[in-house]
Amino acid sequence: MVILIGISYLLPNLWKWLEQFNPSIDYRLPYNLSNDYWMFTRWSKYACSNYPVLIIGDSVVWGQYVTMEQTLSHYLNEMEGKNIFANMGVDGIHPAAMLGLIKYYGKAISNKRVILHFNPLWMSSKEHDLRGEEEFRFNHPRLVPQFFPKIACYKASFAQRMSVVTERSFSFSSWINHIRMNYFENMDIQNWTMQNPYKNPLKAITLEIPIPENKPQSKPVTWVERGMKKQDFSWVQVEESFQWNSFMKVIKILKARNNKVFVIIGPFNPYILTEESLIRYNNMKSKMENWLEGNGISYRSISDLPSEYYADASHPLKEGYAKSAEELFATESFRKWLENFKEKKFEK
To answer: Are 71 and 83 in contact (CB under 8 A)?
Structure first.
């Protein structure tokens, strides 16, 4: 038993030495590794050692409709004149999942400056807020609370939930998932062998981490060109929102780890909303801003961009990222928040 425990501890650490990880400038996690939380841990450790500022958020931060050189982090670095901002975006990371990601797989994130992005889309309906009663398939179920608080729309079996808890507690389990995703098309070896009877599973392990494809994940056209219609999002009450409550907990964890947090809300596409929905949205946003102000959290709600800068309801195109970066650097509270980090230590 002792030997097995020793092996389960040593293997993941040995793997980090065998599987070289040398992120490029403007690095972002490969899209197909969005659910590889072991890989997120590696990236967060590297970023914490090489960048003074981390930007955490969903595909808005990651850059769904842009290349690596057109993301928010890139334009912020360009304006700063140094590569100090790391793109820690993960596709589909809603606040409830972000809480699990930071709590269990982002423990290295301490004593840093963290820009935390909030995408209001996660509060656009009761379903997206994960408060519906009917089963609702959502992103990153392995990151949300498995037993408490109860998420009624999450219908995983007891065995599945226990498997998730085990993965969080032992790096060996998350490492095994990394091997599956990186080398075996997210299958265990038995199923992969059945699907690929003439391939040698040992040869499949190349010890090479995929390089992020430097292209937009989705076609970079405007929401109008995409044929999107006006949306009457109902929005949820801030006081009742599970996603907003989770986001507040993320802030609390990051601050407890001695991080200095700056929150970005939006930008969100106002042109896609009906008049009534826009009123509800602005009321909701005001309440979020009041909470941040009341709790001494530095923040900026990005101003509305020109309509042609939006790819959909919440994702900017490259021009939108550039304009958002300019707005942040023009914001006094943001510039003040950036002061006094150890530049020499992090110069690249």
So the answer is: no
Yes or no: is domain 18-130+213-337 CATH 3.40.50.1110? yes
- For 283, phi and psi rounded to 5 degrees? -65, -45
Q: Strand, coil or helix: what is 170?
A: coil
**Residue 3 burial (CB count, 10 A):** 7
What does the chain come to in residues? 348
Q: Under a CB-based contact definition with an 8 Å cutoff, are residues 284 and 120 in contact? A: yes
SS3 content of the chain, % helix, strand, coil (to 5): 50, 10, 45
Cβ pair 180, 186 in contact under 8 A: yes
DSSP 316: B
Strand order in the sheet with 260-265: 85-87, 53-56, 113-118, 260-265, 298-301
Reading the chain (348 residues) residue by residue, the pLDDT tens digits are 545 455 555 777 776 777 888 899 999 999 989 999 999 999 999 999 999 999 999 999 999 999 999 999 999 999 999 999 999 999 999 999 999 999 999 999 999 999 999 999 999 999 999 998 888 989 999 999 999 999 999 999 999 999 889 888 888 788 888 888 888 777 777 777 777 777 777 777 877 888 888 999 999 999 999 999 999 999 999 999 999 999 999 999 999 999 999 999 999 999 999 999 999 999 999 999 999 999 999 999 999 999 999 999 999 999 999 999 999 999 999 999 998 654 444 444
- Name which of 80, 70, 90 is nearest 26 in CA terms: 70
Determine the Cα–Cα distance for residues 228 and 248; give it in Å rounded to an integer: 31
